[in-house]
Amino acid sequence: MGFFDTLARWLGMKKKEVNVICVGLDNSGKTTIINKLKPQNAQQSDIVPTIGFTVEKFASASLSFTVFDMSGQGRYRNLWEHYYKDAQAIIFVIDSSDKLRMVVAKDELEQLLNNQDILSKRIPILFYANKMDMKESLSAVKVSQMMGLEAIKDKPWHICASNAITGEGLPEGVEWVTDQIRSMKK
Amino acid sequence: MLGLRRDKKDEEDGFSLNPFNNLEKTSVLQEARTFNETPINPRKCCHILTKVLYLINQGEHIATTEATETFFAMTKLFQSQDVTLRRMVYLTIKEMADLAEDVIIVTSSLTKDMTGKEDMYRAAAIRALCRITDSTMLQSIERYMKQAIVDRNPSVSSAALTSSLHLMRSSGDVVKRWVNEAAEAASSDNIMVQYHAIGVLYHIKKTDRLGVSKLVSKFTKQSLRSPYAYCLLIRIATKLLEEESEGRDSPLFDFIETCLRHKSELVIYEAAHAIVNMPNTSARELAPAISVLQLFCSSPKPTLRFAAVRTLNKVAMKHPAAVAACNLDLENLITDVNRSIATLAITTLLKTGSESSVDRLMKQISTFMSEISDEFKIVVVQAIRSLCLKFPRKHGVLMNFLASMLRDENSSNSSQGGFDYKRAIVDSLIGIIEENPDAKEAGLAHLCEFIEDCEHTVLATRILHLLGREGPRTPSPSKYIRFIYNRVILENSAVRAAAVSALAKFGAHCEELMPSVVVLLSRSLLDTDDEVRDRATFYLNVLKQGNKALNSAYILNGLNVSVVGLERALHSYTLEPSETQFDMKSVPLATQPLAEQKTAEVTPAAKAPDKVAATRQDIYAEQLAAIPEFQGLGPLFKSSAAVQLTESETEYVVRCIKHTFTNHIVFQFDCTNTLNDQILENVTVQMEPTEGFEVLSYVPAASLPYGQPGITYTCVALPEDDPTSVIGTFSNTLKFLVKDCDPNTGEPDEEGYEDEYVLEDVEVTISDHIQKVLKPNFAASWDEVGEDYQMEDTYALSTVKTLEDAVKNIVDHMGMQPCERSDKVPADKSAHTLFLAGVYRGGHDVLVRARLAVDDGVTMQITVRSTDETAAEVISASVG
């Protein structure tokens, strides 16, 4: 980190960069969320299932995010772990209308938390209880109960209901992550 | 200053020029962990990727786990927007696609790049994507590929089309669905896109002949922009013409001909090349193509001159008259500054020129022989060889030239390989000696001189063998002794051994040289090498016996058994010790590769299968020995070539191979079932023999599913009471149990029914009872066998008119080996003697001398000698 970088950041011209990994089951809306967070002109009109992963960038008020948007399909989930190491925050997307597979999501979350690279670190986890507009969707509180989020003691976490299509609830989550990362640096 | 000097020294030594020299795999892979760091340093990462690529391309083995770890670390580089780094990443993905696991992880990242706005990424991303995609994943990127094929950016479209070609191999069905997009791309304005699109279209329709001809006719009508596309169309059209063997009035040929007037030189050359290489072209059709090539010969562009003269050189033998029309232009090219062009021009002229121009051309070519590369020297040597066959009278000039080529090579830089070149010269010299008896002495003299200073053991031993064979029969054999004995003194052990054998042959053949040869050989008795000593001792003892029969059997004519067979026989003999002595006659004889090569010279196409045939019999022997029914038959004597008993497109295809044993013949039937809705079971071939023969047993093929060849055997005993009746005709019927089955699953029905199928007859001829054997020294063997069982008879062959035909007929009929090159009839002679040698069933030597004289018809006096009375009778009886 050169002198000019420091200077630029101090003057607020250049934002600090953070790496975030976005995971969750297939069809939970990860790519749609990331797409919505991007600047208006960079957004894509149609979203297709991700194979493997894609790298996306977006910015909040004070941070520049680099997101590894992972594929949620069953056979690619074991590839997530390759990207845990340098993640500074995790976004876990849950389809709050899919009660049936909530246990699968819970299972994946447990595996994630027990991974060597995650276990030792105190990194913030943001949960999006997505698809809140659906009729049969559960509330954020209900989702956190079903996922057993209260059990997470050693890491800061936050859950917020969201609608990725309209963008409702997304800024709240990003703000929380930003605060967490900034407070950690201090 | 010091460092500078060291650098210079290193440079001279060839070290340290390459910064990647001495890269350690482990340290590079360690470095690859830098990829995980943030922020990314593009320059550093590029350098590491280069190292990884270098290692992979040097053939360094990277284990799957290591490769996967590096690959996943590399995927993190996608977060950098550096253009150079991204393109390095694409390269590395392509290289590691087969090394690492789960490479599909980058699929979405690549699809994003290929549909993105950055043109620098798009084409490269497509290529990388297609490399990591297998047939199961292809569905998910199909939509993007279709879009990319019709993309407005030519580099993207080309990349998608070429990638489709690669994907065709693994998942042709999916690619076939892109035919509309490819057709759209074919009308692109960009020359490369058009070329690639037509390539893809052709490969999609490759298996459908009608589709291909429609494709060609469609594109030949509209005018294409791309000269490459034209070249491709010409090639496709040529292939179609070849397959359909249509006449020259077809529109395809017209198309190729109109291409001769295209504005691009590339297309013109391709068309001319295609026409010139077509089979059976008439002079009128050739003329425009040749004149185009002629025009190219005087082009200022060296590439065009080279292409033209090379094409002319290739077809000079096929169309000498047409190529001769260009002689004037070729003459001009002799002095071309480009030596490759000059060489090809001269050799072409040599092929087409007349006898009178040979001397002049040879002089011309010798002026720059030292300046051209070995590859072209070989072209020259081959041209000289064919010239020698064409003008036998010129052999003096040509052989002197070859010899001086050998000499120059020896004196100048003998250390620098040139083995292929020397071998080509030696092959040519030997070839000339064998074809042309007049050239023998001069040729042997040249070869003798060559081995005086020859560092290639292979060539030296070969020449020594030739000297041993041909030398004793020259008017003054003694002059070769000195050359051979020099080898005994000076060379390495392999050459010494060969020289000892050659010496012994002189001793055995020429009585007046015997005493001196014995003296020379006895000097080798104390040689340091075992092989040389053994050979010398053996030959010395044989020679001292002074027995002609022994000389002939052990020195002049070598072993005729198959080496593999001998090894197997000796092995089984040592495994089961018995009182009886090892019998040489029980060893299968070697099939004659030498004779086959000679026929192969006439028809190059026959060469490949013949090579296989040399070991074929050993394979059959092993297969037959594994069948319990045939245990008691003794060793396999001869296996015939396969004979088709059905048309090639019938329901069941059967071919027959005759295996001759001492008292039996086993017929092997290779059957193929070409009906996919039937399974045949219990398949046998019922044989109706002529009188005297007796069918002993059948070995059925248990099951014959669709498309898989099966084998059934029939064993027949030869007539015992009358050993001379060995010829017969057998009528055959294929018998089997048919079960219908589902063509898709291959599941047969329970019930089946008996059926039969009539096959063509099989004939057992005299040649099935005789194995070809080459006697290098026929006269010695003739005396060795003696007059005990001699048959003599005279016949008038009314049907044949020339000596060549007579010789050919006799050789075919007898199935024996012509010796002493007596199968070649010298021109303008009215009489000829043919020598044939073989071994009759049971291991009896048979020799035939046929004196032929031509007057009106051909008269033949045939003399048969054998070590066995029956054999002689059978053979002389078979002639009538």
From TrEMBL, chain A:
<keyword id="KW-0460">Magnesium</keyword>
<keyword id="KW-0970">Cilium biogenesis/degradation</keyword>
<protein>
    <recommendedName>
        <fullName>ADP-ribosylation factor-like protein 6</fullName>
    </recommendedName>
</protein>
<keyword id="KW-0479">Metal-binding</keyword>
<keyword id="KW-0966">Cell projection</keyword>
<keyword id="KW-0519">Myristate</keyword>
<dbReference type="GO" id="GO:0003924">
    <property type="term" value="F:GTPase activity"/>
</dbReference>
<keyword id="KW-0206">Cytoskeleton</keyword>
<dbReference type="GO" id="GO:0046872">
    <property type="term" value="F:metal ion binding"/>
</dbReference>
<keyword id="KW-0963">Cytoplasm</keyword>
<feature type="binding site">
    <location>
        <position position="50"/>
    </location>
    <ligand>
        <name>Mg(2+)</name>
    </ligand>
</feature>
<dbReference type="InterPro" id="IPR005225">
    <property type="entry name" value="Small_GTP-bd"/>
</dbReference>
<keyword id="KW-0342">GTP-binding</keyword>
<dbReference type="Pfam" id="PF00025">
    <property type="entry name" value="Arf"/>
</dbReference>
<dbReference type="InterPro" id="IPR006689">
    <property type="entry name" value="Small_GTPase_ARF/SAR"/>
</dbReference>
<comment type="similarity">
    <text>Belongs to the small GTPase superfamily. Arf family.</text>
</comment>
<keyword id="KW-0547">Nucleotide-binding</keyword>
<dbReference type="GO" id="GO:0005930">
    <property type="term" value="C:axoneme"/>
</dbReference>
<dbReference type="InterPro" id="IPR041839">
    <property type="entry name" value="Arl6"/>
</dbReference>
<feature type="binding site">
    <location>
        <position position="31"/>
    </location>
    <ligand>
        <name>Mg(2+)</name>
    </ligand>
</feature>
<feature type="binding site">
    <location>
        <position position="72"/>
    </location>
    <ligand>
        <name>GTP</name>
    </ligand>
</feature>
<keyword id="KW-0449">Lipoprotein</keyword>
TrEMBL record, chain B:
<keyword id="KW-0653">Protein transport</keyword>
<keyword id="KW-0472">Membrane</keyword>
<dbReference type="InterPro" id="IPR011989">
    <property type="entry name" value="ARM-like"/>
</dbReference>
<dbReference type="InterPro" id="IPR012295">
    <property type="entry name" value="TBP_dom_sf"/>
</dbReference>
<keyword id="KW-0813">Transport</keyword>
<comment type="similarity">
    <text>Belongs to the COPG family.</text>
</comment>
<dbReference type="GO" id="GO:0006888">
    <property type="term" value="P:endoplasmic reticulum to Golgi vesicle-mediated transport"/>
</dbReference>
<dbReference type="GO" id="GO:0006891">
    <property type="term" value="P:intra-Golgi vesicle-mediated transport"/>
</dbReference>
<dbReference type="InterPro" id="IPR037067">
    <property type="entry name" value="Coatomer_gsu_app_sf"/>
</dbReference>
<dbReference type="InterPro" id="IPR016024">
    <property type="entry name" value="ARM-type_fold"/>
</dbReference>
<feature type="domain" description="Coatomer gamma subunit appendage Ig-like subdomain">
    <location>
        <begin position="619"/>
        <end position="765"/>
    </location>
</feature>
<feature type="domain" description="Coatomer subunit gamma C-terminal">
    <location>
        <begin position="767"/>
        <end position="879"/>
    </location>
</feature>
<dbReference type="GO" id="GO:0009306">
    <property type="term" value="P:protein secretion"/>
</dbReference>
<feature type="domain" description="Clathrin/coatomer adaptor adaptin-like N-terminal">
    <location>
        <begin position="25"/>
        <end position="546"/>
    </location>
</feature>
<dbReference type="InterPro" id="IPR032154">
    <property type="entry name" value="Coatomer_g_Cpla"/>
</dbReference>
<dbReference type="InterPro" id="IPR002553">
    <property type="entry name" value="Clathrin/coatomer_adapt-like_N"/>
</dbReference>
<dbReference type="GO" id="GO:0005783">
    <property type="term" value="C:endoplasmic reticulum"/>
</dbReference>
<dbReference type="InterPro" id="IPR013040">
    <property type="entry name" value="Coatomer_gsu_app_Ig-like_dom"/>
</dbReference>
<dbReference type="InterPro" id="IPR017106">
    <property type="entry name" value="Coatomer_gsu"/>
</dbReference>
<dbReference type="GO" id="GO:0006886">
    <property type="term" value="P:intracellular protein transport"/>
</dbReference>
<keyword id="KW-0333">Golgi apparatus</keyword>
<dbReference type="GO" id="GO:0072384">
    <property type="term" value="P:organelle transport along microtubule"/>
</dbReference>
